[in-house]
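Continuing the series of single-chain predictions for the mutant panel. This is the parent chain; the variants come on the following pages.
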Amino acid sequence: MREELTHLLYPRKCPGCGIVLPAGLLVCDECAEEFKQIEEPTCLICGRHITDERTERCYTCTNSERSNIFGISIFAYDDIMKKAMSDLKFHGQTDNADFFAAMAVSRAGSRIRSFDPCALIPVPVHKSRLRVRGYNQASLLCDRIGKLLGIPVVDDFLLRTRKTGFQKNLGNIMRKRNLDGAFSCNTRDYPKDVVTARLQRVLLVDDIYTTGSTMEHCSKELVKAGVAEVGLLSISISGGT
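Parent structure:
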């Protein structure tokens, strides 16, 4: 009865086309086919589709510093995904996170379980942006994935300590400069002995992976704070080689 009332008052909309969905559905049948899932083979480090099966890494990860040991991505960052992510991040369509989380677990749940992370960690947003938006989309994704897989979420360890411009408007070099000093770890509440005991393997979660600059800056800080192994999960990823 409570679920029916919630659906009546706050009907769920399709993350693709925006139509109101029947209770229990996360995406309409037509749009379910439109969201393009990443196909094998994929880059070991970021999860991007690669065309050469003889290689383990895409061109970007081969030629860039990477502090994580593996990466998974679920969808290609194409037009339908851009709209769905924009609706989630900027237009309050938080139900979209349910669809993304369900697909992440469906596609990558077994691999995540085999990694056996101590915690899921969302890529943080600056507190000023959090006040305006009201939520961090990566935290929403972590919460939903964590509940589905029974993995705790730790959202007060990795912090965004400096406000930055949006990455999508910058080139590769400026992306890196834009993020210098933007992240740090909460070593007061999580000194190295606590990290060693509780956070030796973590899965870093974000909505969109482009060049990998954001994930790399976060991963590097996590390793510096004492995390032994960092895995990455991005819901969508751009490009492919």
